[in-house]
Amino acid sequence: MAKIATVITNLYEDSEFTEPAKAFEEAGHEVVTIEKKAGNVIEGINGKRIKVDKGIDDVKPEDFDALFIPGGFSPDQLRADDQFVEFVKPFMDNKKPVFAICHGPQLLITAKTLDGRQATGYKSIKVDMENAGVTYKDEEVVVCSGHFVTSRTPDDIPAFNRESMKVLEK
Amino acid sequence: MAKIATVITNLYEDSEFTEPAKAFEEAGHEVVTIEKKAGNVIEGINGKRIKVDKGIDDVKPEDFDALFIPGGFSPDQLRADDQFVEFVKPFMDNKKPVFAICHGPQLLITAKTLDGRQATGYKSIKVDMENAGVTYKDEEVVVCSGHFVTSRTPDDIPAFNRESMKVLEK
User: Fold this and answer.
1) What is the C-alpha to C-alpha distance for residues B68 and B6, in angstroms, rounded to an integer?
2) Is the pLDDT of residue A149 over 90?
3) Closest of A124, A122, A126, A125 to residue A140, by C-alpha
4) What is the ipTM of this complex?
5) Strand partners for A66
6) HSE-up of A61 (CA within 13 Å, CB side)?
7) Is B139 helix (H, G, I), strand (E, B) or coil?
8) Which pLDDT does position B60 carry in this prediction?
9) Which pLDDT score is estimated for B142?
10) Distance between alpha carbon B79 and the CA centroid of its chain, in Å?
């Protein structure tokens, strides 16, 4: 089964982490949360607290099979830290499974990994995605090149989970 | 004196609103806060609550002499609403004074007003600004074309206030 690197910090959109994580784990995959430091307790926009599994210093991209970026105001904070930007880049370069919802693609913009891709994201980042070279689609889920799954909002989570699971099953 | 349209919503960076607003008002200018609806109480990242002066339906760009966009997670939420995107555009097009700090330029990216400009902003939005056509400068304050003032973080507020005030005095 897959080991899924999940980069996340405070003000993440609660359901955009909890619901896909639950679906991944129920299917037997391992979800590893990564923030600045192992053991940090982070809090979602709606108050859900989680204890972080690993610090960014403790992990390498090659230790994981897939990348998951929940939305909210978490991705924008992560991309202010070059370590997170460098961590996510090889997943896109090596076409490993990448799942990004809502503001998740912000981190991939800063990593300069989106040029020529088809994707979606939260409405507020549409122009940023287009400026980064994305063909933006206003659809509940977009799967690009068989490995890169994006969705817009919590309402899209069922479609996001369904397509992410299909990519993991391959 | 100038009437300054200040577009702002929840999770604004407290000091990036309060300190420039205080400086503008002490110099005799009028700061008008604008959110979805007049009377709404909004809350900054650090808990400062303010009551909004005007709703976006109640105002027109031509009623104001200048535009102020405080940072934090406020600009990203405002740009998900087309009314705010359309409201800010004429200030840039008509070269009225525009003051944007931290994440403030996000709203101007979505309004497609930054191509060919010199500016700065919070580190996390650097690549978005460059992709929008900005020459990004990692400086405490950047003044473009004599009307457009940008800064990066709360530490830059003294320089931001100083240069904004110079533009208003012209």
Assistant:
1) 5
2) yes
3) A122
4) 0.97
5) A4
6) 18
7) coil
8) 98
9) 98
10) 12
The residue type found at A112 is K
Residue with the two structure tokens 């940072």: B71
A122 inside 8 A of chain B by CB:
yes
pLDDT the model gives residue A18:
98
Our count of domains for chain B comes to 1
> Is pLDDT of B59 > 90?
yes
Amino acid type, B102: C
For the question of residue B103 being annotated catalytic, the response is yes
User: Is A144 noted as a catalytic residue in this protein?
Assistant: no
> Which residues constitute the domain of residue A110?
3-169
B92, B108 Cβ separation under 8 angstroms: yes
> Distance (Å, rounded) from C-alpha A17 to C-alpha A21?
6
For the CA atoms of A95, A128, B15, B56, the dihedral, rounded to the nearest 10 degrees, stands at -140
Q: What is the pLDDT of residues A51-101, one digit of tens each?
A: 999 999 999 999 999 999 999 999 999 999 999 999 999 999 999 999 999
Contacts of A122 in chain B (CB under 8 A): 80
Total residues found in chain A within this entry: 170
Q: Which residues of B touch A127 (CB under 8 A)?
A: 109-110, 112, 132
- Residue closest to A108 by CA, chosen among A91, A122, A94: A91
Record the pTM. 0.97
For the stretch A8-63, pLDDT in tens is: 999 999 999 999 999 999 999 999 999 999 999 999 999 999 999 999 999 999 99
pLDDT 10s digits, B118-163: 999 999 999 999 999 999 999 999 999 999 999 999 999 999 999 9
Q: Which of A103, A131, A134 to mutate to test the interface with B (most CBs of B within 10 A)?
A: A131
Q: What is the CATH number of the domain that holds B147?
A: 3.40.50.880
